[in-house]
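Limitations

Structures in this collection are predictions, not experimental determinations, and the ligand pose is part of the prediction. Treat each record accordingly. The example that follows, with heme C as the small molecule, is included so readers can see exactly what is and is not provided: the inputs are given verbatim, and the output is the predicted complex.
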Amino acid sequence: MTQAKIGVRVAGLIMAFTVAVTACSGGAGGEDLDAQLRGVIDAHGLAGDPSIGRDLPNIEDPLAQLGMMLFYTKGLGGQQDSACVTCHHPMLGGGDGLPMSIGVGAEDPNLLGPGRIHPGGPLVPRNAPTTFNSGMWDAVMFHDGRVESLGKTPLLNGDDGYGIRTPDRPLGYPDVNAGPNLAAAQSMFPVVSEEEMRGFDFGTEIGNTGEALNGRVRDLLAQIIGGYGEGGGVLSPNGWPTEFRTALGSDAPVDELITYSSIALALGEYERSQVFVDTPWRTYVAGNDDAMNEEEKHGALLFFGEAACSTCHVGDFFTDEKFHVNAIPQIGIGKDSGMYGDDDWGRYLETGRSEDRYAFRTPTLLNVEVTGPYGHDGAYPTLEGIVRHHLEPQKAIKEYDFGAVDPSIRVSNAERYTQAALEQLHENRSNGIYSVRNVDLTDDQIGQIVAFLLTLTDPCVRSRECLAPWIPDDSISDPDNLRLNAVNAAGEDL
Ligand code: HEC
Ligand code: HEC
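Predicted complex:
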C-alpha cells in the first residue's frame, strides 16, 4: 500500500467514526447542527446579549456605590431587621433561595437562604425574583407587572418619557413620584410592604392607609436616613449625609438631598449595575462553535423550535414581559385573592380581566441555574421539574407531591387553588389565548433543554470573587452600623 492510500483510508475511518458518533446523539450533528442553529439565531435576530444598546451604570459609579450601602442596611426596615439584601443576595442568585421570602420577624435576621425561619411560616406571598439584570426590563416589573412602563420602549428600562405606573396609581396612570426608570420605581415598594420590610406598626400611628400610608412611610424613612425632622437622631452613628453628598455631588441641605426619591434612585442604580450576561450562549451566538456541546445545541434547537419555549421566552432577555397562565402549583399563602385571601390571582389583581386570573409575568431565563426554586411561588425546586410542567401541566399537577411541601409553607387549599389555575389555563386555551401547549418530548430531549438552560449562566454569578464588587466589605463605609452581613445556615459568610 502506498503512503497516499493509507492516508485516504485513515481519513475515511475518521469520517465514518464522526458520522457514527453524531448519529448516536440523534438528529443533525457537527457542522449541520451549527448551521441549523445559526439559521435559527439569525431568524430570531439574536445577538446573545440583552445589554447591547443600553445605558447602564458601573458598580464603581458613586451612585451605584451609595445604592449598595442602602441595599444592605437594615436602617430602611421599619423594625431595623430587614434590608433589601435579605431577599436579594448576589450569592443567592440575586434572590433568596427560598420558595417564598421571609422578611421581618425572622428568627435570625442575618441568616439568609435555606434555614431562614419565620415562626409560623413565611408571610411574603411570592418567590423573590433575581435583581440581576434589572436594567434589562422595558415593560413591567414584579410577577404581576404592577410597576409598568407606559411607553415600553425597547432598551430604555422605562425611561422613555411616557411615565411609569405603580401600585400607588390606578392601572394606566403615570406615578409622578416613580423616578426615571423601572428599577427606581420598583424600589419604592419593598419598604412599604409590612411583611417584607416595614413591619406592622411603623408609620401607622396616624391611621393612614393605602397611598397616604406609603407616602408617610417613605417620608419617615428618608428623615431617618437623612437624620432630620421626626427621623432625626434615630440612627446613631449617621454617616448618610456625607455619603449622599459625595454620591450626588451636591451640598444641598439634607431635607432636599435625602428624600425617598434619591434613595430609590440609588437603589435602582445598584441593581442596574448587576449586568450578568456573559454566558456560553452569548459566546456561541457571537460565532464560537466550541462554546456549547452537542447536547446543549440540540436543546437550543428544541427551545427555539419544537418545544416553542421562545414564543414567550423571547429574544436576548428570554422574556416577552407579558402574562400567561401556566398553572404552576399554588403551594403557599398567596396574595389577597379568593374567599380566604390566601390564593394568588396574579395579573388579575391589577387588570380585573378574567383571562388574567392566575397569569404571571414570563421570567427571564438568564442565570436561571442559580435563581431557583422556580415559579412565582417557588413550587419547583429543580429546572427539570418546571420544564416538565410546561410540557404537560395537567400531568405535572397530578404528579405534584403537595404532601412534600414544607408544612410551614403549605396552605390547606393548595390543591384546590392549583386546580382552579389549571381550569383557567384550559379555558384560555379554548378561547384561543396563547398559552403553554402540550409537547411530547423524550427524557433525553428534556435533558437537552435543561442543558441548554445551563448555558444561560454568566460564570460570574457562581463566583464569590467575581461578585465581590457587589457585596460590601470592610473597605466600604457602613454609615449607620446596620449593615446586614449575611451568613448561611452553616454560619458561613455569604
Ligand atoms: C422579604 C423579602 C424581600 C425584601 C426585603 C425585598 N424584596 Fe424585592 N422582592 C421580593 C419578592 C417576593 C418579590 C416579588 C413580589 C411580587 O412580584 O409580587 C420582589 C421583587 C423585587 C424586584 C422585581 C424584580 C422583577 O423581576 O420584576 C426588584 C427589582 C426588587 N424586589 C428589589 C428590591 C429592593 C430594592 C428592595 C429593598 C428596598 C427589596 N427588593 C426588598 C422579596 C423581597
Ligand atoms: C405561553 C408562554 C410560555 C411558554 C411557551 C414557555 N414559558 Fe416558561 N414561563 C412562562 C411563565 C408565564 C412563567 C412563570 C410562571 C409562574 O411563575 O407562575 C415561566 C417560567 C419558566 C421558568 C421558571 C423561571 C423562574 O425563574 O422561575 C423556566 C425555567 C421556564 N419557564 C422555561 C421554559 C421552557 C424550557 C419552555 C419550553 C419548554 C417554556 N418555559 C415555555 C411562560 C412560558
